[in-house]
Amino acid sequence: MPLEESKAAFAGFVTFVRGLRGDEKSEAQTFLDHFFRALGHGGVIEAGATFEFRVAKKPGSAQLELIVGGNGAPKAKGGKKFADLLWADRVLIEMKRRGEHLERHYDQLFDYWTHIVPKRPPYAILCNFDEFWVYDFNTQLFDPVDRIKLDDLPNSLSTFNFLLPVWKKPIFGNNWVDVTRRAADQMATVFRELVDRGEDRMKAQRFILQLLVAMVAEDIGLLPDQLLSELLHECAERGASSFDLIGGLFRQMASPQKAGGGRFTEVQYFNGGLFAQVDPIELKHAEAYRLCESAAENWAYVRPEIFGALFQDSMDKKERHAFGAHFTSEFDIRKVVGPTIVRPWRERIEAAGKNVGQLRGALADLRKFRVLDPACGSGNFLFIAYREMKRLERDLLLRLREVSRKEPLESAISLHQFYGLDILPFAVELAKVTLMLAKELELEEAKKLAETDQLLIEEKPLPLDNLDKNIVCADALFTDWPKADAIIGNPPYLGSKLLKPTYGIEYVEKLRKAYPAIPGRADYCVYWFRKTHDQLSAQGHAGLVGTQNVRNNYSRIGGLDYIVANGGTITDAVSAQVWSGEAAVHVSIVNWEKEGKSREPFHLSVQRGDSTASPWETFELPRINSSLSAGEDVTSAVPLRANREPQRVFNGQFPRHEGFVLEPDIAFRMIAEDPRNAEVIHPFLIGREMLVEGEPQRYVIDFQKRDLFEARSYKAPFEHVQAYVLPHVQKLADTEQQKTGKHIGQDQTWLKIWWQHFRCRKEFVDSVEGFSRYIACSAVTKRPVFAFVSTAIRPDHALYAFAFEDDYSFSILQSSFHWLWFVTKCSKLLGRFRYTPDTVFDTFPWPQNPTKEQIRAVADAAVALRKLRRERWI
Would you call the peptide bond into 463 cis, given omega within 30 degrees of 0 as the criterion? Predict the structure, then answer.
């Protein structure tokens, strides 16, 4: 529809709506149908949207089904909540009567949106016939990305681009994420310029953080209007000294004594924490100009919790990085803060009803409630927790005012109830600033809310809180934690194999000594899970984000198994999801309480796919097990002797240097020169070739355990390895010796047998001797594909080889039963499954006492499957 026609259509819609009474029950559908027609649709139904969408569904519904566990088997759960309109993949709309204050219905809209799975719409709208509040909960949790009044609709068409018959990217007027990205990019660029020209790094960091606070303060009225902007303009346009002007402003912000004269007389005291040390910097012209441009942004819209993550990620990148940097979305953070903090308090508040004594008791306890993030980073989890607790406090005050007019209406939730630990000094300073600004932004929000609910809570914005004793730089795993009622956070994502390369051998040995009960192959975040549970009080709650391996194998044993075995109850969890805060990272989220008092059902969610937009499944269960699975609990399965002896599963060969690998023409030439070379030159199969080409595309020199004298007898292969592999192994051994100061180590050991593979897998070669074939599968996969491979072919270490050559065993391994066991018991890598023989094969319960007829039927099925594969590949 052309622009002028669209404006005319919306003008007609506005005229129509003015004639409505604005009654939600009788006129909401009429309103929405005309709204969709103005957008260019035939109506709501014609667009594909649904009126009165049931949010919690009845059994058998084609829409959402929440799955409830009971009597050992999941079943569908009914429900009675209805959303006014749902357009799948586009929008959820909730209508309220004319004149209704929309902010009061935020929780209802958010709750409906949260429960729309498997695929939530990207946007949600609250509307009271006169105003549209548009939300994008994935990026901006608390505040609408746009507020459009009815009369402004004809001039605000771009806001609703996502509702047009042909989707277009919407342009929102209140998109704080975009503003924050621009601000973070500008500030990170200035920081890099300062450091590149020789300014002390810590000094430059402090200067940028002081500027951040000053810019926000100017735009929310804590500094005189345009003061900082004018100072930066003078530096950029008139060559004034930033050392004098900006330095003077910061010194005055740090002084409890008001200036006796000059341009800083109206500057109030901020605090002696961030501004306790003022090190002015003389800005270059380009730097001053860039900061002048940055000050022109509306810093009241800059989200400090996002800014910190973007700035920290960008400050050492040479390119303009903040526009592509990742940050953890508020919605994802709320998957921890909601179940761990908000939900228990909401339940207590609802249970209190109108009982003044219980409401007062809840308010008093809330104001003593302490929150700790032992891996706080830039403070984004604490920021969300603070804002949610302020919302809880406001709700309690409103309820008390309704039943008792004598209640004092002051806020007592303090930043000093929030604690953080981080090993990075700059992250600690960022977290302090994030929390300080959280208070200021919350005060601004309270002023807006007071206009509608007449609840004005007196709270002084200045001076800023000094959080030096609350947010501390320390290694959380070797530091006493402050007492807390709730522990939340996002510990580092680091697999066990990366611990030594990242932190060094001494640190890892210290870690293992301090936490001897945690398996050495557990991921780094598991140590936080373990210590968190030990630190919680009896009534404490916790919520942590971890690698998805926290639900698998050694990581599960060290963390979630321990938590469940020691009184913990998992109340809400995400088994797997793509994390918003990091590219290509899959995580698990676990919320639990120290002594299980919450009543079932408990909620378990899982995202099916590899993008943040992938669909979801949600389950309601009487118990969430430590493997975070909705199906059978197999965490107690143990290795079976019958599966282990004799060994049947082997990792493929690991040459560790490409000098062992040959192109086919070179291999053929060596064998043609001396047919005996075929004894040590073999086709070499990798995972992709098994799945795609179906046959090896390269060869490998494999001397197995032959000694040096025997290896030399294969002249061409030996000389090839000597020329290409030996120098590399020598270098590795020398480096290892220099690094460790010891004459032992894996590389120095390899040097003694350098002509052999780093891992030649002799036990595998011996186990299939006399076989014509063996079974192989990719070590990491998304789907179950097992294949027979000729014993003439060597498997790469990215494959697992099974010493079976019969069709019956093939069929069992390829079966859906084994696949289900596989995905439940294996470890995970991003969105893929890693076959781990000790937890998958060794524990797998093979069929017991099958009859000959059953064995034949199963074997025949394997033959038929491979025949079908060949036909499809051809």
Answer: yes
Last residue of a domain, one of 118, 133, 163: 163
More reliable by pLDDT, 652 or 740: 652
**Are 604 and 619 spatial neighbours (Cβ–Cβ below 8 Å)?**
yes
pLDDT in tens, 330-358: 889 999 999 999 999 999 999 999 999 99
| E strands in 674-779 | 681-685, 698-701, 773-778
Q: Report angle CA 713, 718, 721 to the nearest 5 degrees.
A: 165
For residue 197, what is the DSSP state? T
DSSP H helices, 454-525, are: 499-503, 505-514
The CA distance from 341 to 112, in Å, is 20
Q: What is the pTM of this model?
A: 0.78
| Residue whose C-alpha is closest to residue 554's, from 524, 579, 523, 532 | 523
Task: Tell me the C-alpha distance between 23 and 99, whole Å.
Answer: 10
- Residue matched to tokens 């947010």: 471
Q: 139: Cβ–Cβ under 8 A, 6 or more apart, which residues?
A: 145, 175, 177, 329, 330, 331
Cβ–Cβ < 8 Å for 163, 90: yes
Q: What is the pLDDT of residues 800-832, one digit of tens each?
A: 999 999 999 999 999 999 999 998 888 776 667
pLDDT (0 to 100) of residue 71: 35
Could you tell me how far CA 152 lies from the centroid of its own chain?
38
3-state secondary structure 126-163: EECCCEEEEECCCCCCCCCCEEEEHHHHHHCHHHHHHH
What range does the domain containing 756 cover? 656-760
- Cβ-Cβ contacts under 8 Å for 368 (sequence gap 6 or more): 417
Count other Cβ atoms within 10 Å, centred on residue 642.
Answer: 9
Nearest Cα neighbor of 106 from 87, 83, 82, 133 is 133
In this structure, are residues 432 and 383 in contact, taking their beta carbons and an 8 Å threshold? no
Model confidence over 500-541: pLDDT tens digits?
Answer: 988 999 999 999 999 999 999 999 999 999 999 999 999 999
C-alpha angle 547-619-558 in degrees, rounded to nearest 5: 30
Burial bucket for residue 358 (CB in 10 Å: 0-12, 13-18, 19+): middle
Residue recorded with tokens 């039963």: 817
Phi, psi (degrees; rounded to nearest 5) at 359: -65, -45
In degrees to the nearest 10, what's the CA dihedral of 294, 300, 304, 305?
A: -130
3-state percent helix, strand, coil for the chain, nearest multiple of 5: 45, 15, 40
Residue 262 gets the label, from left (phi > 0), alpha (psi -120 to 50) or beta, of left
Is 194 in a helix, a strand, or coil? helix
User: Does 538 share its domain with 664?
Assistant: no
β-strand partners of 587: 547, 577
Residue 726 CA to its chain's centroid (Å): 43
b/e for 234-246, b at 16 or more Cβ within 10 A?
A: bbbeeebebeebb
Mark whether 150 and 226 lie in a shared domain: no
**Cis ω on the peptide bond leading into residue 601 (within 30° of 0)?**
yes
Cα torsion angle, 349, 352, 355, 360, sign: negative
641 and 788 in one domain?
yes
The first and second tokens of residue 150, run together, are 């009815």
With beta carbons less than 8 A apart as the criterion, state whether 383 and 304 touch.
Answer: yes
d(CA 536, CA 756): 52
Residue 479 covered by a domain: no
How many structural domains does the chain have? Answer: 6
Same domain, yes or no: 8 and 155: yes
Tell me the two tokens of residue 846: 């093979």
- Angle of helix 356-366 relative to helix 343-352, nearest 10 degrees, comes to 160
The secondary structure element, H or E, covering residue 781 is: strand 780-781
If you write DSSP's letter for every residue of 259-270 in order, what string do you get? Answer: PSSSTTTTPPP-
Alpha carbons 284 and 304: distance in angstroms, whole number: 26
Residue of 75, 86, 17 whose CA lies nearest to 50: 86
Q: Count the Cβ atoms, other than its own, within 10 Å of residue 287.
A: 20
Instruction: Indicate the residue among 270, 285, 314 that finishes a domain.
Output: 314
